[in-house]
Automatic annotation (TrEMBL):
The protein's name in its UniProt record: A1 family peptidase
Domain Peptidase A1: 17-409
Keywords carried by this UniProt record: Aspartyl protease, Hydrolase, Protease, Signal, Zymogen
Sequence similarity: Belongs to the peptidase A1 family.
Pfam families associated with the record: Asp
Classification of source organism: Bacteria, Pseudomonadati, Pseudomonadota, Gammaproteobacteria, Alteromonadales
Taxonomic source organism: Salinimonas profundi
InterPro entries given in the database record: Aspartic_peptidase_A1, Aspartic_peptidase_AS, Pepsin-like_dom, PEPTIDASE_A1, Peptidase_aspartic_dom_sf
Length: 436
């Protein structure tokens, strides 16, 4: 089996991490957000030229997804995808891809789409065979018909779709593992969940050059890559294979009193399963409001000077809020510990250091932004996003048991020669040109 490293950057998705994939017969380059909180593979139609793709075949399916912020819908096609560098890659034919005909604001930011890395139950589609027959669409396929004849917004078109039979699409990573090309594991090595800025109005090339805006996506057997991590390796139990569902037992500010994990409301158990998920598509740690307020209270109890800094941070707005970094002495801030259920029913504690829950030179040079928030309307569940993953070499092991495990290993700084290779691989691709 192959185990490969794919370069990552957080520049195109404004803090989220994208990997470059090559789609179709022309190996068209697209930068896709890696999201363990969803399962669909979607590419914006402006970023890919399906009409020129001799590998493309149509289907009768349409997908729609609405995220916490943003959403999209579009026809499902099948084509080939290559991941990795030309000399070290994996290729797969007949991959299901949704092509967006509508997107809400900020769904993909400056990326070209999203690659969901969760499980099949989240990769829903609707079979429009009946509709296509009634409309005399020939061939009986949703592409390009849906893109040519539909202009509704996402919420309205979703209501239309829900009249038709629901089915599941096999996600890309599931297909890749089932093909035997790689083991049923992947890992993320990341440093930030906000872009690191050193000067105003930096061009993309300058942002891509900074190693703190780099990362690695390891497909295959991440533990074989011993230059990327050291012991200890802490292992959480994945309790449900819908999201990467975990159980959060408590949060602790420094040596303070434990804040118990939330209790998921009965009405949300079927859809959300547990009181926590590990989500690489989240650029912050999202807490229920009561836990968020208690955490802030305990931080201010540590040091009253924290109060005016934290006053800027409340509910998630979709926009990063910066304070003057000169007012922030990270040496005064405590670590924040999150304890979850381990794979052997033991308590496993993971730690966010101050330089990951406060990120400097973001959203602008000389500023800093706080990476905890709450999300109005979200269930009583914690979203363990990138700020936690940034502290570790995080391995999603789907082969363990019935539902998998997540390993948090001590990450190693990426050596200089690898930084240069990643930087070269991340340079902007010319849209419309063939890459081989």
């Amino acid at each position: 089996m192959t185990s490969i490293r794919v370069p990552l950057t957080n520049v195109y998705a404004k803090g989220g991490y994208t990997a470059r994939f090559y789609v179709g017969a022309q190996h068209h380059p697209v930068n896709l957000i890696l999201d363990t909180g969803s399962s669909a593979l979607v590419v914006h139609d402006d970023s890919y030229q399906p009409g020129r793709d001799s590998h493309l075949t149509g289907t009768t399916l349409v997908q729609d997804v609405q995220y916490g912020k943003g959403g999209w819908y579009g026809p499902v096609v099948q084509t080939s995808i290559r991941a990795g560098l030309p000399y070290h890659h994996v290729a797969l034919d007949d991959v299901s891809i949704a092509l967006t005909s509508q997107t809400q604001v900020a769904s993909f930011l400056d990326a070209d789409g999203i690659l969901g890395l969760a499980y099949t139950s989240l990769d829903n589609a609707y079979d429009l065979t009946e509709f296509l027959t009634t409309e005399n669409v020939n061939p009986r396929e949703t592409y390009p018909y849906v893109m040519q004849h539909t202009a509704q917004d996402v919420s309205h078109y979703s209501q239309f779709l829900h009249r038709y039979p629901k089915t599941h699409v096999s996600p890309y990573f599931t297909r890749l593992e089932e093909s035997g090309a790689i083991a049923n594991q992947f890992a993320l090595l990341t440093h930030r969940s906000s872009i690191y800025h050193t000067q105003t109005h930096q061009p993309v090339e300058k942002l891509l050059a900074h190693h703190l805006n780099h990362g690695l996506f390891v497909l295959g057997d991440p533990l074989l890559h011993r230059d990327l991590y050291t012991q200890p390796v802490k292992t959480l139990a994945v309790l449900h294979d819908k999201y990467y569902n975990v159980h959060v037992q408590s949060i602790q500010v420094g040596n303070g009193e434990l804040i118990p994990g939330p209790v998921l409301d009965d009405k949300h158990v079927e859809s959300y399963c547990t009181n926590g998920i590990v989500d690489s598509g989240a650029s912050a740690i999202v807490l229920p409001q009561a836990i968020f307020e208690e955490m802030k209270r305990q931080l201010i109890a540590c040091n009253a000077n924290f109060a005016p800094l934290l006053a800027h941070y409340e509910a998630f707005t979709g926009e990063e809020v910066g304070i003057d970094a000169a007012s922030l002495d990270l040496s005064q801030w405590p670590a924040i510990h999150i304890t979850c259920l381990g794979s052997n029913d033991e308590a496993i504690t993971l730690t966010l250091t101050p330089d990951t829950y406060w990120q400097v030179h973001a959203p602008a040079p000389g500023e800093a932004t706080f990476k905890f928030c709450y999300l109005p309307g979200w269930p009583n569940q914690i979203i363990l996003g990138l700020p936690l993953l940034n502290n570790y070499y995080t391995i999603f092991d789907r082969s363990a048991g019935d539902t998998g495990e997540i390993h948090f290993a001590t990450k190693v700084d990426i050596p200089g020669h690898m930084i240069q290779a990643i930087h070269h691989a991340l340079q902007p691709a010319s849209k419309g040109k063939t890459n081989t």
